[in-house]
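Listing 4. Sequential folding, example run.
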Amino acid sequence: MNTRAKLFVLAFSGLSLVAISSLSASARIVCNEDGDCWHVHEDFAFPPGAHVEIHPDNWHWKEGERGAWKEHEGRGYWHGGQWQAF
């Protein structure tokens, strides 16, 4: 294999790795009306009564805003301080 072919294979492999890794990163931040926020790693269809906002994974509160992180495993949402599984 000549040098040009080796460089092409190396570049293609690197770009493929970057493309694959960006597809698997689908985390989101979900917040309810009370300011409780948590991470989700799948796209869920939340019930209409959940009253949640879905943000990108790099979202954060603006200066002066307050909220609380309440992580929980599984599919559900925080409502009134209680985890509601669905």
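-- end of first protein; second protein begins --
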Amino acid sequence: MIILLIILITAVISIIAFNDREIFEKLKFNAFDIKHNRQPHRFFTYAFLHIDLMHLLVNMYVLWTFGEVVFANFQIYFGFKAVIYFLALYIGGVLFSVLFDFNKHKNNVSYNAVGASGAVASIVFASIILHPEGRIFLFFIPIGIPSAIFGVLYLIYSAYMAKKANDNIGHNAHFWGSIFGVIFTIILNPAFFTSFINEVFSFI
């Protein structure tokens, strides 16, 4: 239910902003406005915006797919606190994923960002910690990639692309969102990390 609610709210705001540039401009992430114009809401509201319908659909599909795994595990281990912890993971991912870019671009008036990708990355990597034995299927690769291997490759790729900085994709947000997902999940229950390590070494 909580995942559907996040998807619904994000979809409604994104679609409204598609047709209302004023709303889009007021909610997007802009480090300069956050620092110099005292608009801290942009740390969070940017995650409810997307560039286009495809951007929105991809993020929400990934959130739904991996969020179900994470939430089901949270229910098993934490019971009624699962909703609180899932929201903390998602919202924390929204904030943590842009802190690096805030520090980097706080005096750059032209740097903007939108999309839930950083928060979604937090969910994806939480699922990897919980189920490293799982496999992730990409459209162009017919064979599933073990989750743990995918995680390592994804972090390397994100860090590399962030340094190149020659496209319009928020690779820093992906990287730091992923890191937050790992750290948050382990803090919730350190036994998750032990299980993760044991599972990884069992199929090395």
